[in-house]
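INFO  loader      accepted 1 record
INFO  loader      residues=735
INFO  predictor   begin
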Amino acid sequence: MTAARAGEEAVPATMQSVVGYGAIDCTEEDTAEDKLVLTHDRLFCLVTSHGNIAPPGRCSLGLFHDDTRILSDYQLRMAGGPPALLSAEAPRAYTAQVDLAVSDLPFGGDAWDPKHAVHVRRELVLSDRLTERVTLTNYLAKPLDFWVELSLGCDFADIFEARGWRRAARGQFFAPLAEGDRLLFRYRGRDGRMIASLVRFCSPPGRLTPEAARWEFSLASHVPVALEWEVLADDPSGRSPAPIDGGLETRRAALEREYREWRRGCSRWTTNVAKFDVVLRRAVDDLRALYMEVDGDRVISAGIPWYSTIFGRDSIITSLQTLSLNPRIARDTLRYLARRQGTREDPFTEEQPGRILHELRRGEMARAGEIPHVPYYGTVDATPLWLVLLHETWRWTGDEALVRELLPNAERALDWIDRYGDADGDGFVEYTRTSAKGLVNQGWKDSGDGVPYPDGRKPTPPVALVEVQGYVYDAKVRMAELFARFGRTERAAALARQAEDLRAAIRERFWMPDTGTFALALDGAKRQVPTITSNAGHLLWSRVPTPEEAESVGRVLLGPDLFSGWGIRTLAASHRAFNPMSYHNGSVWPHDNAIAVLGLALYGRARDALPIVRGMHEAAVRAGFQRLPELFCGMPRQRGVGPVRYPVSCSPQAWASGALFLLLQSVLGIYPEASRRVLHVRNPVLPDVVDELTISGMAVGDARVSLQFRRHGERTLANLFEVSGAPLQVRIELD
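INFO  predictor   done
INFO  writer      dumping tokens
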């Protein structure tokens, strides 16, 4: 495409023909751990360890707002050639620091003894915009004639394009406007909406073009020079740019206050192992970082970079994992999803009355109808999981007002399960997609090949996943308790009968006596898909198996076919379908493992689960920025070598961060009954990587409780430190 003159509209162009805007290259994607990741609210930014977005338009690199890349080229160049990287840190999810050095060789240095001469510090802060300050210090004894240049560009790519989706056409670009202290990029999407990104320079450049800003100055000896600018999504007219309002330091201080307030609202988990504490603190901050405001509501998003949006299943499971940390996450999730519960039948978005949404997108492709995520409802498990979360939140909070508020939504969810989830009336909840652009698989393993036969063949729909039947059983048991609590005894009794009938049917139809575990699914002909997977661990959480079956399932989960040494694989290594580098057919997912650990603990097998807890802890310690990624590869663990990274794993990722707290809650045997003002601590077992763990300020109802767990030989002892805020009976139960 030939660039238009300033103010003139450019011709429509395909993605491949946009010259100067960075064709999207996803042929060599790096893991998120190789980048600096910043996130805040509806913005996230991925840059290289040097602080650049380079090469322009490369895959996930860029500054994104509402699923749209508003900065795709961002490269700092300077006198003396490419600087050397000294360090790159992201101490918080909203800020990063990169330290670089320029050699003295271009400035007359000795080729036999080159020295670092100019220190360059890049400080980035992400708030409602990206703000950067570059500080240059000359450590030579003489002044230097110096220059700095920042190249800039914007391709306005949709997040699906950045992931590799090939679109037939793009919208219309406008030539960038370079005026005074600002550079404006504009684009009209195929839906007719104008969007823009604005670069504002607090330190006006000496020369500004549509492609770059350049500063030239004398760099005196030992006298720092600072340059600062900001990038934000803005009014396409460019007439009313947001004020700079104090710059980088002001924004960083405001964000730190927000995070301090968040931490005060969370329980505090500390151990006698500093590395473990670092991992836990990082997880707490990452959960705050993934919060976003959508249509006036605040709710936790899924992960960076691919899922910086609302996912029903992810938000629900994260909420279940973190009730011991901060029940606000669960309350916000319940209300957000209830307000957007399905009300009509729409085959394109797969919306149905009572169904809980799967995914919401706000980019051009969703707005233009190229994808159905407006929102998209194609998930079979979010609806029963929402019911499970409602009950579990009540167990932790005793919040009867919340339950009364959401009981109508619960009724609609139960109706969806019976009318739409079980469309053929066989008692099982199945899925078949109705949208040509929807998901083929609609459980948590929702990749196209994520539900295979052992040999890799794909089952014919409708497909009934084993863990989903467990969720439905659990949901009906829990809702029976809630309805009984609120005086609806007949409804409660009916749900309890339905649950027991379903439990018997699951055990009859899914159990595989020759393998000692449950089948992955039933296919469209109601035949078993006899693949050995981690899904059976979820069935333990739902308390479907008998104690004898649970013991057998536990042996399979922890056997060499599934347990890699780091965690439980999604699929058994003995199957032809196994691929340790795949998304769902042999990889290791922290949230999946946390659910299995809770399931084992519920059957009194917490000690058996300790190798999983150890593996997850050690994987987090070895991971970039000491955070558990969304998943990693399922190769067997080797002595002295860390887990193998999965190339496009999200990091941070909400249900990976939350997994740590569910893992600990499970093996420590923490079970609340807030409505009775009781907290049970049943047969706690400390992970063998720590000797002491203290939980301070854990909310149970209106009370706050502090507990300490200490190893004493082979036993773990629990001590009650404090109860405040309201009466609470803590029952420490040791066999």
